[in-house]
Amino acid sequence: MRKVLFLCGILGMLCFSGCQRDTVVWETVSDQIYLSVDGKVPVQLTMDFTAPEDAVQSADAFSEGTVYQQAEGKYEIVQETMQSTAESAIKRMTGFSKNELTVMETKAFDMARYDFVWSAASEQGQQVCRGVVFDDGTYCYTLTFQTAEENGGELQECMDEMFASIGFHEDEGF
User: Fold this and answer.
1) Long-range contacts of 160-166 (CB under 8 A, 24+ apart)
2) Which residues contact residue 65 at a Cβ distance below 8 angstroms, ignoring those fewer than 6 apart?
3) pLDDT class of 174 with cuts at 50, 70, 90
4) Fewer Cβ neighbours under 10 Å: the N or C end of the chain?
C-alpha cells in the first residue's frame, strides 16, 4: 500500500509540475515614452539667445522653431527644437553629414554641443552659414545663422555675440 501511495504521489507531482502559472508581461505602446538612466522623464527646454537688434521674427515661424530675418535681407536666423540625434540634426540643417564637416564637439549646460560652419549655394548666390546643436540625449536644440558671402566679414561680431549668448530654461507652463 505504501508503494502505491508513493507511486501515486510521484505521478501526481509529475503531472502537476507542468501547471505552473505563466508570468504576465504587460507591454505599453506609445509614441513618446522616455526614461533616463535615473528614472526621470526628460524635460524639453527652451533655448534663449540674444538676436541682433535689427532681426525681426518672420511670419515663417513653425511649431518646432522660429525664424528671424534682417529687414534688408542681410541674414536669416533659424532656431529649432527636434527629437533626433545630433547627426540627424546636423544633416537636416546643413545637407551634409557630420563626417563631411569639421565639427567642434564640446559640452555646455550638461549637454553635448556641436559647432560648425559651412557654405551653400542659393538663388541669391553663395551663402556662409554657422550652426550649433545642443543634444541632451532626447532633444536637439539648434541655431543657425546664414548670410551672403559678401556680408560674412561685417557680421562676424554679430554672429559671435549671438552664439555666445545662448542659454536654456525650462518652460514653467505660464
Assistant:
1) 161/50, 161/52, 162/49, 162/50, 162/51, 162/52, 162/77, 163/49, 163/115, 163/130, 163/132, 165/48, 165/49, 165/50, 166/47, 166/48, 166/49, 166/108, 166/132, 166/134
2) 78, 79, 80, 81, 142
3) very low
4) C
C-alpha cell at 123: 538663388
The one-letter amino acid code at 109 reads F
Q: Are 86 and 103 in contact (CB under 8 A)?
A: no
Local structure of residue 16 (DSSP, 8 states)? H
- E strands within the chain? 45-48, 55-57, 65-70, 75-82, 104-108, 111-122, 125-135, 140-148, 167-170
Give the model confidence (pLDDT) of 70-100 as tens digits.
988 899 999 999 999 999 999 999 999 999 9
β-pair partners for 45: 170
Give residue 123's identity as a one-letter amino acid code.
E
Question: How far is C-alpha 130 from the geometric centre of its chain's CA atoms?
Answer: 18
**In the structure, what pLDDT confidence band is assigned to residue 123 with cuts at 50, 70 and 90?**
confident
